[in-house]
Amino acid sequence: MKSKTGKVVNAALLAAALALPLQQARAEIVSTEEVAGAAQSAANRERVMEVMGRAEVEQGLVKLGVDPQAAKARVAALSEAEVNALAGKLDSLPAGARLTHTEFVLLIILIIVLAIAL
Fold this sequence. Notes:
By secondary structure, the chain is mostly helical. The protein has a domain of 60 residues. The chain is elongated.
């Protein structure tokens, strides 16, 4: 009797296993650019969040009436393209009151012209 019950249970389990939908495994080729792009996006996001954590940035946000924690949450919600664009702008923005060489030369020329005119 025990073997007949075991056979019925085995048959039921086999039928249940065969009734389950089969899933296919998919393997796709991932390009190096896609992998590098994802890694670069993660690095850019960390860099932007690091800048947002600086004391002078937080003080500037408070002066503008923006909650620093809300600003960090918004940065965390940015898409990869937006983070990459923002990280690219961080390199081109001037730090403090530093002048570029062109601006410095124009300022010297302006001072000389004003000194001659007065």
